[in-house]
Design brief:
The chain has a single domain, classed as Arc Repressor Mutant, subunit A (Orthogonal Bundle). It is mainly alpha-helical. It starts with 13 loop residues before the first helix and ends with a helix. The longest helix has 27 residues.
């Protein structure tokens, strides 16, 4: 059973605080993944990859950068790229300046689906996160997580 926090109980031990953060994230993320799978037949890694590509310049990123940013292994990104290519959503493109670099780039069909995905994710995030916490608290959580990302980034 999840422990309920009131504004008057900030003195939970560290493990309980962290547990609540993780449980809140996992429950919310589970709803998001379920909606994405139902609408697009994408697994979480495929959806994350498409969202990263659609938000990037030229709708592409080096595969090694995708792996690092999304905390995937390079082999994991290769498998994701294979699945997206099989569905004609993305294609591998060599870098013109450095033959060691391979980009994963959205196809036109992939860009269209990724924009639809982005809209769905926005709706689900609004419903399960922003509407629950309110815009100001949701922004505070996002800022806190950005600070944690930077403070604890792998060196």
């Amino acid at each position: 059973m999840t422990q309920q926090l009131s504004p008057a109980t900030p003195d939970l031990d560290e493990v309980s605080q962290w547990g609540l953060v993780i449980e809140g994230f996992q429950n919310t993320n589970r709803k998001l993944h379920k909606a994405v799978a139902a609408a697009f037949s994408l697994d979480p890694a495929e959806a994350e990859t498409l969202l990263r590509l659609v938000r990037s310049a030229d709708r592409r990123k080096p595969m090694a950068v995708l792996a690092r940013e999304a905390a995937f292994s390079t082999g994991g990104v290769t498998k994701i790229a294979d699945r997206l290519a099989k569905r004609n959503l993305a294609a591998r493109k060599p870098c013109a300046d450095d033959r060691r670099v391979i980009y994963l780039e959205l196809t036109d069909a992939g860009a269209e689906l990724a924009e639809e995905l982005r809209c769905l994710v926005s709706d689900v995030v609004r419903e399960t996160y922003i509407d629950v916490l309110g815009a100001e608290r949701a922004a505070m959580v996002a800022q806190a997580m950005a600070e944690l990302r930077e403070a604890n980034a792998a060196q």
